[in-house]
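Dear colleague,

Thank you for sharing your sequence with our group. We've completed the structure prediction you requested, and as agreed, I am returning the results in plain text so they can be pasted directly into your records. Please verify that the sequence below matches your submission; if there's any discrepancy, let me know and we will rerun it promptly.
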Amino acid sequence: MDNSEVWASTSKSWVNQVSREPVDLTHCDREQVQFPGAIMPHGVLLILTPNDFRIQGASANTLSWFGSEAEQLLHGHLDQILAANNRETLEKSLALISELQLPRYLGSFLTLQGRHRFDVFAHRSGDVLIVEFETIPVEMAETWPTARMAEISDCISKLHVANTWQEGMAIGVRELKQLTGFDSVVGARFLDDGSFHAIAEACESYFPSVLDKRFPRSDIPEPARRQMLLMPLQYAFDLDYEPVPLVIADQAHEPLQIDLGFAVLRSISPMCRRFYRNMGVQSRLVISLVDQGKLWGFFSCKNATPRQVVYSDRLVLKLFTEMSGLLLVEKGRAEQFQVASQVKRRIGKIITSLFSADVFPVALSQLPEQLLNNLDVTGVALCLDGEFFCAGITPETTVIQALISWIDEQNSPLFITDRLPALFESAAQSLGQATGLLAAHLKRPGQYLLCFRPEVVHEVNWAGDPLKQVEIDAVSGEARFTPRGSFEVWKQEMRGTARAWQFYEAEALTDLQHAVVQLQYTENQRVLRSHLAQSNTELEAFAYIVSHDLQEPLRGICNFAQILVDNSSGQLGQQELKWLNTILNLSGRMSNQINALLQYSRASQQSMIVQLVDLNLVLRSVLEDLSITIKSTKAQIEILQTLPTLACDQIRVASVFSNLITNAIKYNDQAERRIEIGYLENPTLTFFVRDNGIGIPEKFHEAIFTIFRRLHGRNDYGGGTGAGLPIARKHIERHGGRLWLESTPGQGSTFYFTLGSGLALSIAS
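Please find the predicted structure tokens below.
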């Protein structure tokens, strides 16, 4: 029977109609291949309850293998199939299967009257046990272990010496063909788009070759790919079989509800069987090559006639392919790592040169030329706030501007494509050779580093027409994809794509992107600090000059007003005297504010005199200066512990203590004013002045450090200029410390300050 006869015999209700129009069908990807409701006929499947091992289901072929109809076995036990000793051994093994896992091999068993010998496998599926009996032909007795293991060891040794993964794949298919005796063994690698490529082949001359041909993704639909991960070794003795349905005792279960995803005997998808039969294949063995949970490739063994491979041989093949898969993947990773290391090393040198550059903006403008010489690109454009720096072959500036606006809409820090014209259709004709794009977003919107690659036109040798044919059901009119009937070379010219960007190229550009953004921020901060320092210097100088120069005319106003008052001799009326006194009061207030401004500017400008200072002596001196105020207010000052000796500016620290203690006394309406002074070690040395005064609402905790900002009326709580706390904070900041507070209105405030971690020299015991 040729392929056309096979096709006709397996699709009686379908009319084969070929359509060249695109068809949006997802039948293949929707097919639930793990629920076939049937098995292959070279074995028997039983469904058992996990507790008492009662038979709840069986494949319909038990009569030919066990001598009993499936219906006769339902609700029974394994003693209907196995002798007592075999049954006991098998049930002990079944009791150990407690979770979902790959089928466990339980051993080789003879059925009653020694009718047949089977390899027995079992696994859990939902709330039942799936037990499979795979027949072992008499002529295929188990004689493999020593000789077969020696062959495997020899094969793996040959793989070790392969220089590349491609060379290793070629060795692998040759050795697998020798081990299996199949007509054809193909080693294939999955590509990024889901298609797969026949890299290596060992094939008999009479069997059609697929070497170096490419197969579309649809040839292995998504369910089949999941199954390849679930069951890395899949075997079919004879693809030209009649599926054996399951017979279920429990009406709550339907055969199509039994998950056979892990079953060794699971019936293969009709679509898959037709695909292989169209290739002239009767027996197949597929072994997956997996890399970190993802399909990397596979070995496909095909035979033109049925070929039985018993479990012991499959176990050997599985061991070989697992080892070879590890070696091939590792060799591929090593090759890629070597290239990736070279790329990252070159980008690393560029990053180092940027960090060591004397003038960063100049170094940044030279970046496109450096990338052109160190990356596999034909053009680079750097876009900075409307300014463009280009090297190599790039689109026109206007096109780049439009491209940047479009990339911004994609909202991706790193945009990658190897088919830019298909995505950026509005300017596709203007892109020229810019088909591949790797775009890194920099610090601000519109700032990008763009790397371009040209279109690569290449020819792909497909194994047959990659466009699926469509069948239309003669009765329902439903459409579905069908397997190809021919696998002759179908040449296709591929256009519109550039060479794909590799992950290590994206990683290298990401490293460069982060470095440039960091340097942009650093440069921006440097410029801002420079401007700020210059501005602060100018402002402080201005404040000092103004406050110093204003004192002289202000003193003149005060003096002349006082002379007028003293020499009026009754010549001025009460109103005039009142006006003169107001001038004197306002001049005094202004003088105080100018003095405060002068102190504030000096706090920033005057140099620090740092020396070893005993803070106990400083505090004692401050309290002596404030003794009159303390006595008049009856304030109670408590020093909680001996203060440390520190390296600091004695005058500035004394000013801080004086200001905080004065405020603690002044802003207090309690009958008994209490003030505590001490320090904490948690772990930074932190001093505090605590009072039981009026407190400060949290929303004003920063406002009080603004010069001339008072929270109360001009004459409330003894008046003041509102400059004490800002000056105190300036003194603390000059020490490298900080000043802050905690306060509860009506209960008091605690002001904390530090003097910088590097200032403490010793602490008194």
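Summary note from our side: The radius of gyration is 44 Å.

Kind regards,
the structure core
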